[in-house]
C-alpha cells in the first residue's frame, strides 16, 4: 500500500519537526524561568544530561508522563491532539460501496481517488473527488454511522479544505444506518439533501447536486 506507507513517512517527518519545536520551547521556558538544567533535573527526577538531550531534541522516545512533568516544571502545559488523515486502511466493504457509487456517476466527471487536502503537513484526504468544469465534488464513504454529528463535521472540514463546491457523503444502506439517518433527519435536513434518488439522478447526468448531500448506496 504505497499511499499509506507515504502517509506514515510524512507523519513521522511531521512529528520530527514538532519534536524539535517542542525542544526549543522547553529550552526557552527554562531560560525565561532563570533555572539551570540541574535545577529542572532535580524537580523532574532525571539527570542534567537527560534535560540537555530533551532540550536539543535528542530524546526521541520520551514518555508522555515524563514530557508532561518536564513541561510543567518550566511553566508549560502539554496538549496533544490528533486529527483524521486519509481515513486509515480501506476495508473491502468501504471500497465496495465507493465502487457501487461511482458506477452510477456520469463518466463526464474526472475522478481522483483518495484526493489529498492541499495544505502543508496535512495528511487528510477525501475518498474521491469528482471534477467537472465549475465543480469539485468531495465524496466520503461511511460504512457505519456512529456519532453522526462528529462524522459529518470531520468530512465537512475536509471538503472545505480541499476546496470542494459540493460534498456527497455515501452511507452504506444497512438497516442500522437507515435508522440512524431517520433519527438525525431533522438535524441533517437543513444542511444536506437526503433524497438519494434526486442526488444520484443529477450525478448520473453529469451535474453537481444543488446542495451537499447524503446518499444511501
What does this structure look like?
- It is elongated and about 70 Å long.
- The protein is built from eight helices and five strands, in the order αααααβββαβααβ.
- The longest helix is centred in the N-terminal third of the chain and has 32 residues, at 2-33.
- It has a five-stranded mixed beta sheet with strand order 1-2-3-4-5, with helices on both faces.
- The mean pLDDT is 88.
- With 217 residues, the protein is an alpha/beta fold.
- The chain starts with a helix and ends with a strand.
- The protein has helices spanning 2-33, 37-44, 48-55, 64-73, 92-103, 148-161, 175-188, 196-204, and strands at 110-116, 125-132, 135-142, 166-171, 213-216.
Write the layout of secondary structure elements.
Elements: H1 2-33, H2 37-44, H3 48-55, H4 64-73, H5 92-103, E1 110-116, E2 125-132, E3 135-142, H6 148-161, E4 166-171, H7 175-188, H8 196-204, E5 213-216
Parallel strand pairs: 3-4, 4-5
Antiparallel strand pairs: 1-2, 2-3
Key attributes of the depicted protein:
alpha/beta, 15% strand, 217 residues, 8 helices, 5-stranded mixed beta sheet, elongated
Give the overall average pLDDT. Answer: 88
- Binned strand content: 15-25%
Shape: elongated
Largest sheet, order of strands side by side?
A: 1-2-3-4-5
With helices defined by DSSP (H or I, 4 residues minimum), what is the helix count?
8
From N to C, what is the helix and strand string? HHHHHEEEHEHHE
Fraction in helix: 40-55%
Give a short account of the largest sheet: 5 strands, mixed
For the secondary structure, the number of strands is: 5
Structural class: alpha/beta
Poorly predicted runs: none
